[in-house]
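Lab notebook, design round three. We kept the backbone fixed and only want residue identities now. Task for the bench partner: fill in a sequence for the structure below.
Input structure tokens:
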């Protein structure tokens, strides 16, 4: 490599290093905190906690540190986010999908389509939210919480300040679901409604709870069969992120081409790569130790992306969004609970 090229590479790394060290520190702090028996920490999970710690840090540090960290923060928001989403595919295998059954997939598809359509209709037409904010809230509720919000934001070119607003709805109502479902499962009338079917209730949990971490927390309070079905149904729902991103990319591309700005939105190529990894996982091409390491790396990359997002977020922007996003999130949560129950009973 020529000397000039090496100097340019070294200079680029020097620019990235402050921001990467900042997001790494915040992410490791979040990952360590979730190991402690703290109720609130367990409710929000490591990704959201990384964002919350970063929001706090962003308000405390000076503008000089923020400026020096900008290159690394941007790298985390862009490249590490995509790398984390790609690696997320290694958590899914075709055997898992088969064990949940076709009914789980049908419920997931109806939930995702119904919630996204409702978010767009109600958010834009009735609550007068901008289209991108409504879609982000819908994606977080419909698919996989904060990860879906982060993946959808660059695809539709959402405003950066709209992302934490959407994630706030995921935190609030996903945590509500995490507390509600174990209580519901213990009620005799719920057992009678589901005909004492652990599998059916597991499908409901997986198809309607926002975050994977929140589903895992609910599953810990359920019998083994219900817990396994809940997690697998949720992972099937995560896989629907790919077609959703492709549809959103097409819709927002179409909108751009009809306007005076003909710029094309980037295709979510990382989502297509994500779809290939369940095949890799199913064929047992990777040793278990390497697979475990990649799972940890996936969580770290996503946490660093959340930290980078949170560091640039100001609470004033969230307050400025008002109550309309929360009203939309509450409506979607109610629809998930009621509609998800109806779909589960119908297809079980």
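Proposed sequence:
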């Amino acid at each position: 490599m020529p000397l000039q090229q090496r100097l340019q590479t070294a200079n680029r790394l020097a620019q990235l290093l402050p921001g990467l060290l900042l997001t790494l520190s915040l992410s490791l702090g979040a990952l360590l905190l979730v190991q402690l028996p703290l109720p609130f920490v367990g409710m929000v999970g490591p990704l959201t906690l990384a964002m919350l710690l970063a929001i706090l840090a962003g308000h405390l540090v000076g503008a000089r540190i923020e400026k020096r960290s900008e290159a690394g923060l941007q790298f985390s928001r862009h490249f590490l986010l995509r790398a984390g989403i790609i690696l997320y595919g290694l958590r899914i295998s075709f055997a898992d999908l088969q064990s949940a059954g076709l009914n789980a997939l049908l419920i997931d598809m109806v939930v995702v389509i119904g919630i996204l359509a409702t978010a767009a209709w109600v958010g834009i037409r009735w609550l007068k939210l901008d289209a991108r904010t409504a879609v982000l809230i819908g994606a977080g509720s419909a698919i996989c919480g904060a990860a879906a919000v982060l993946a959808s934001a660059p695809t539709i070119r959402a405003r950066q300040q709209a992302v934490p607003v959407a994630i706030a709805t995921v935190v609030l109502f996903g945590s509500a679901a995490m507390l509600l479902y174990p209580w519901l499962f213990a009620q005799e009338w719920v057992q009678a409604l589901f005909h004492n079917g652990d599998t059916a209730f597991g499908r409901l949990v997986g198809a309607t709870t926002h975050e994977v971490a929140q589903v895992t927390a609910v599953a810990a309070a359920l019998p083994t069969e219900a817990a396994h079905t809940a997690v697998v149904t949720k992972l099937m729902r995560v896989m629907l992120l790919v077609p959703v991103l492709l549809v959103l990319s097409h819709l927002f591309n179409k909108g751009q081409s009809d306007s005076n700005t003909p710029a094309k939105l980037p295709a979510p190529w990382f989502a297509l790569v994500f779809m290939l990894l369940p095949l890799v996982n199913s064929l047992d091409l990777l040793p278990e130790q390497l697979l475990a390491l990649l799972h940890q790396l996936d969580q770290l990359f996503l946490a660093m992306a959340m930290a980078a997002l949170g560091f640039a977020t100001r609470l004033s922007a969230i307050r400025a969004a008002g109550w309309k996003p929360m009203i939309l999130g509450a409506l979607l949560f109610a629809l998930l609970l009621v509609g998800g129950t109806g779909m589960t009973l119908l297809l079980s």
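Keep this in mind before ordering anything: The chain has a mean pLDDT of 87.
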